[in-house]
Amino acid sequence: MAVSTVATTLILIRHGERNNPAASDPPGGPSLNGDGKIRAKTLVHVLGQTGIKVIYTSNFIRTQKTAQPLAAHLAPITSVKLDDPVQIKKHISLNHSGKTILVIGHSNTVPALINLFTGGNLPDINDPEFDNMFVLTALNSGRAFVTRLKYGKRTP
Question: Over the stretch 114-148, which tens digit does the pLDDT of each residue have?
Fold first, then answer.
């Protein structure tokens, strides 16, 4: 009897460049600056034809604003707001197995989620880096593979 292998593809990025945090920021933190808005629009060109079915963001404005142009391009699309990498992995496994998913997180949550799937030890993303894109293929056997890419304007 053949065993069926289901692959789930996660595309993981950090939010676009943000305004400097300030005491006057709304509860959802700082929004995107001009470079971040351009990076968000670049996602339409880079990911607009990839078959993404779900976009995960955190509860922070900068992740949601990064997702906005692509979500509008792919509309209607399912959007999920979760902050904790463990909850994100569980939610994906229970609800979106076999799909292509975009996760827009933060310098610490993107590597943490990758590490949960791979068992690896990817460090946090450096604060000035916004151009990383990780493509993770998770198999239902528990194995996962990651490819690291760059997109948009180069950052340090």
Answer: 999 999 999 999 999 999 999 999 998 889 999 99
With tokens 């916004």, the residue in question is: 130
Tokens of 27: 């509860």
DSSP helix/strand/coil, 138: strand
Strand ranges of the sheet holding 7-14, from the earlier edge strand across to the other edge: 78-81, 52-57, 100-105, 7-14, 132-139, 144-150
Number of separate domains in the chain: 1
Does residue 71 belong to any structural domain of this protein? yes
Model-level pTM?
0.94
The DSSP secondary-structure symbol of 20 reads: P
The CATH number of residue 55's host domain is 3.40.50.1240
Q: How far apart are CA 51 and CA 144, in angstroms?
A: 19
Q: Output phi, psi for 113, to 5 deg.
A: -70, -40
DSSP labels, 132-145 = EEEEEEEETTS-EE
